[in-house]
Amino acid sequence: MAEAQMGDAVVLVSGGLDSATVLAMAGAAGYRCHTLSFDYGQRHRAELAAAERIAQDMKACSHKVVRLDLGTIGGSALTDESIQVPECSSEGIPITYVPARNTVFLSIALGWAEVLNASAIFIGVNAVDYSGYPDCRPEYIEAFQVLANLATRAGVEGRPLTIKTPLIDLSKSDIIRHGLALGVDYSKTVSCYQANSEGLACGRCDSCRLRRKGFLDLGISDPTLYQHHAG
Amino acid sequence: MAEAQMGDAVVLVSGGLDSATVLAMAGAAGYRCHTLSFDYGQRHRAELAAAERIAQDMKACSHKVVRLDLGTIGGSALTDESIQVPECSSEGIPITYVPARNTVFLSIALGWAEVLNASAIFIGVNAVDYSGYPDCRPEYIEAFQVLANLATRAGVEGRPLTIKTPLIDLSKSDIIRHGLALGVDYSKTVSCYQANSEGLACGRCDSCRLRRKGFLDLGISDPTLYQHHAG
């Protein structure tokens, strides 16, 4: 998928719109991409199937799924079945926030990056739509990069690793525009927090609403596959 | 296990000598201790049984085991069956180093700390005997603490979390001396990188050698249970 040679990169892919765009951007920038997904007890398991499909379509060099039972520690509507996924926005840190999720995901990506001798980790965090998530802010990403270069053999030996967040300042419609220009097929992505087993979206959760608005703002048709009750 | 009230703490316990000592220290300091172990594809699974035994003996408030297949990303003699555990010391970063292991463990501890509203995470890293491991150095721990307080709801809301490393500058014999004073029963701990299913130690790997030397230096008898071939 690459022309120039930028070395290897680990790309976190969730199966959603954002990370599919990041994967396309990393490939276009010339990285050899190794995609990483997590089976972390999330409700919307259709996203794991989407992640694998996207990795194959975009010709990732390799794709791994790491099992990790974050449900054991609880605390989020996305992993704890006793907490309901909300269908209206609220102030502050949302209940769909999974405790330390990006830190855990980046840490495991860091381990794989070390094994691969990769020079970058790509993650689709976004500080515009997810301002309520502490681990989507630029200062958090900068702190992780400092940590990464103290934590690893590569860092100690003077081969620094960069954490790449190409979406961090983009609106949802900007993300979609970039992805379409790079040929991303968004009908294959699943963003919904409570997609059904076929990957059909609810159309009502925060993630569905943000995604739908992105397509509306761009004035193009939304390829998302919704469950029948979505209005 | 506590007199004073220091709040809740997550204590990483591996089943080994160091983390059992840390648990005793955290309890003596007045923390309500919640112990966390990882089933991460390590060869020496007897340590998980030891961790549970130690948590019970020391009356931890709760004990969790998080499954996590670090073997998927490979790269270490401790998780990759195609790499042999060495029986002599070597220069530089050892092959028993698991890529980004402490970062992954601390990240998951951070998630649980957030759910518990804990004020501290205790980890038994040691910069004396493990100088070859980048993620056992004080500057690494400081960077993780900075990250932790940017990553979390508690940090954002002004309730900082501290990463406690009471063993970081202690020799193995100092660690044992502190633990014995606090009543730790080291016969219940398993340190060996390749213990058998009954938890008997090989007596030859780096971890066994360090442990044995600690008891020798103190001039007290070593309660470790060895396999028959250990000299």
What features would you describe in this structure?
The structure is a homodimer of 231-residue chains. In chain A, strands 3-2-1-4-5 form a five-stranded parallel β-sheet, with helices on both faces. Chain A has one domain (8-184): HUPs (Rossmann fold), CATH 3.40.50. The model of chain A has no long low-confidence stretch (mean pLDDT 85). The longest helix of chain A is centred in the middle third of the chain and has 16 residues, at 101-116. In chain A, 35% of the residues lie in helices and 11% in strands. By secondary structure, chain A is an alpha/beta fold. Chain A has seven helices and five strands; from the N terminus they run βαβαβαβααβαα. Chain A has helices at 17-28, 46-57, 101-116, 138-151, 153-156, 172-181, 206-218, and strands at 8-12, 32-39, 62-67, 120-122, 162-164. In chain A, strand 1 (8-12), helix 1 (17-28) and strand 2 (32-39) form a beta-alpha-beta unit. The interface between A and B is large, with 44 and 44 residues.
Structural class of chain A: alpha/beta
What count of domains describes the coordinates of chain A?
1
Unreliable stretches of chain A (pLDDT < 50, length at least 5) are: none
How are the strands of the biggest sheet of chain A laid out side by side? 3-2-1-4-5
Helix amount of chain A, in percent? 25-40%
Mean pLDDT of chain A: 85
Per DSSP E runs of 2 or more residues, the count of β-strands of chain A stands at: 5
N-to-C SSE series of chain A?
EHEHEHEHHEHH
Of all protein chain pairs, which has the greatest interface, and how many residues does each chain bring to it?
A: A-B, 44 and 44 residues
